[in-house]
């Protein structure tokens, strides 16, 4: 045990009172507080992020899930999700990390940001975001009869989160189509499993509908390259999730490898269920939730304080 020097403590208290009298604000005290004091640090985090979560596009499934979290968690009373775009969110995240400032963002994986930065998900005790998701492939009704070769390839299309992240990382230095072609060239054995026994076609047109996330750009462009190698003319159409489901259900698009299930796009899936064919998962191990830099001394959504 260390010995308490009461005289020294009295001097420190006097200095502290003098600083307050001179106009030193509480924010400065929080800035210099021992990071080991969880309560002080947690309150400081909530205040410093101004009780806001940096989100992405309003139409994204994770945006709706975060709105649900704001309602589900009583301690998030008064908090606000600020929506703009994925690019804007990543810019805000990069600025915060460069300056070692606190920030809370809506995040998902696979995504290159987890390879680029040291990040962590906040624990979600209420299970609003679910633990693990999968990405599914849906096609319009009648595709199997109209384009059996494409149907077979799309039905077989399955890869791992590491594959998708490889494409996303490469796409930070080149166009997505080039990144996808590079992945296909380097993983021809996996591609051969998708195309085994499939007869080439001669210029048949097919439209793949995707959401504007880098994850979906990765899978859509890889599928595009593979289908083109089999003779298809492929069009990629990026839209909001609700439009994506509507397009496949109404037959305005042929297929999509973008639905996140069972939580992220559940509302859209249920709305059009029965109007499209679900070919099952093309990737397992996806996740969504609230994400913070690992240097932040917080581990759970429940650690956040309500807005005053």
UniProtKB/TrEMBL annotation:
This is Glycine betaine/proline transport system substrate-binding protein. It is found in: Cell membrane. Its main location: membrane. Residues 1-21 form the signal peptide. One of its GO terms (cellular component) is ATP-binding cassette (ABC) transporter complex. Pfam families: OpuAC. It comes from Melghiribacillus thermohalophilus. GO terms for biological process: choline transport; glycine betaine transport. The keyword Lipoprotein does not apply.
